[in-house]
Write a structure and sequence with these properties.
single chain, alpha+beta, 22% helix, 31% strand
Length: 118
């Protein structure tokens, strides 16, 4: 994965650089979200991304508990997929998987229980 970074300015004027883990558009809220890790501290966070001119934009605070819960679930899914990618030979493309490297030689699709609560 190529490095994707975001730089934002805190209220105190300090610029903070972060690595973008993933972005997500929610059909339910009609908002774009960005989930990132602050490079200096390793802290994970998220924000609403408000696009300005196709490439740049502003970030806004997430205000509802429902949005935070949705993003937490997405982050758990993200880390689960990262773990699958670490399995030798598995690219986590489960729709076409035939790697047989997942536990008990199951396909990736069998290994991921989409109905399982995290």
């Amino acid at each position: 994965m190529e490095d994707r970074k975001i730089t934002f300015t805190q209220d105190n004027g300090k610029e903070v650089e972060a690595e973008i883990l993933f972005t997500h558009f929610s059909e339910e809220t009609k908002k774009n979200y960005v989930v990132f890790k602050v490079i200096e501290t390793g802290e994970l966070s998220a924000a609403i991304f408000v696009e300005k001119d196709g490439y740049t934009g502003e970030i806004a605070q997430i205000k509802t508990e429902e949005e935070w819960e949705m993003l937490e679930d997405l982050l758990n899914d993200y880390y689960d997929r990262q773990e699958l990618e670490d399995v030798d030979g598995c690219d986590s493309n489960c729709d076409s998987c035939s790697c047989h490297t997942c536990p008990s030689h199951n396909s990736c699709k069998d290994y991921i229980d989409e109905d399982e609560e995290i």
